[in-house]
Amino acid sequence: MQLSRDEMLGAYRRMKTIRAFEERLHDEIMTGEIAGFTHLYAGQEAAAVGVCDHLTNEDFIVSTHRGHGHCIAKGCDVEAMMLEIYGRRDGLCKGRGGSMHIADLSVGMLGANGIVGAGAPQAVGAAISAKLDGKGRVAIAFSGDGACNQGTTFEAMNMAVVLKVPAIFVFENNHYSEHTGFDYAVGTSKDIASRAEAFGMKAWRANGSDFFDTHDTMRELLDYVRAGNGPAAIELDTERFYGHFEGDPQRYRGEGELDRIRETRDCLKAFRARVSEAGLLDPADLDAIDAEVLALIDKAVANARVAAPPDPASVADDVYASY
Questions:
Q1: Strand, coil or helix: what is 109?
Q2: CATH domain 5-305 topology
Q3: DSSP 169-238
Q4: 235-280 pLDDT per residue, tens
């Protein structure tokens, strides 16, 4: 199905926002003003946007430690995200979550977390609620290739099949589980999608560095799940442009590897080339989006630098839930 001009411009804006957000964080972290570990999503933008473009605020996603891209793709406010990463009072989680624990229930973003594979069981729980209310909602667990080796992920996939809930397991295979190569860690099959199929669910595969391939494949997958067929999975082959965490020396990379993937697997370059060559979008319109996005990120950083931190007297707030 051909996307409209506005849909393509919107997708490019979201991908560019993720890229600019992450590249700016890469610079800002060097100032020492941002506390805690940060794991950048740059390079994988087509995966997050290609998946989330089909979702509404009523659908759920659960993210990973590399969650900024998922947040932006799902509709989280960029300025409030920056405030959160800077640990400010008016951040999405009142400055208490930081980079790895951003959540916004108003848009169906149930949260990022630093435990590999922890999102899968959370997504199954959300999918159970979606099945019970019968509104056609889905719950998506974003995971990396490292999470495909976690017992929690296996248990969650099995439970999703047994209960036939609308859970979707999105495996973003960026070829490294922290510092360990996918070719070594996943074993001789070299195939994450087949692991999901072994539990009895249908699985898809797509080029996660190609927005259009990801978007089209996710449309087919979501139609299948929303029709009541139970859970499904998708393996997206993609690349990350930075280290596992900021400060990672990346000595596990091959010589020239980063230059190669930035040249041949940059999803923004591929998007621009495709829509321009086909006459679908004017490059000037994309350039205008670039400028607007950079201005937004500049504003977000400027505001975050001077914003107030949480009041120390509120340290016990939101720790316990009252029923």
A1: strand
A2: Rossmann fold (3.40.50)
A3: EEEEE-SEETTEEHHHHT-TT--SHHHHHHTT-EEEEEETT-HHHHHHHHHHHHHHHHTT---EEEEEE-
A4: 999 999 999 999 989 999 999 999 999 999 999 999 999 999 999 9
DSSP string, 18-77: HHHHHHHHHHHGGGT-S-S-----TT-HHHHHHHHTT--TTSEEE--SS-HHHHHHHT--
Nearest to 166 by CA among 104, 249, 227, 101: 227
For the chain, what are the domain ranges? 5-305
- pTM for this structure? 0.96
- Rounded Cα distance between 207 and 193, Å, is 13
**Cα–chain-centroid distance for residue 53?**
12
Residue 317's CB is within 10 A of a number of other CB atoms, namely 11
Report the alpha-carbon distance of residue 292 to residue 167 in Å, rounded.
35
Q: Which residues, in sequence order, are CB contacts of 79 under 8 Å at separation 6+?
A: 296, 299, 300, 303, 304
Q: Would you state the structure tokens that stand for residue 221, as one six-digit string?
A: 């997958």
Crossing angle of the two packed helices 267-277 and 283-306, in degrees rounded to 10: 150
- What one-character DSSP code corresponds to residue 78? H
How many Å apart are CA 181 and CA 153, to the nearest integer?
19
Please write the tens of the pLDDT for every residue from 102-120: 999 999 999 999 999 999 9
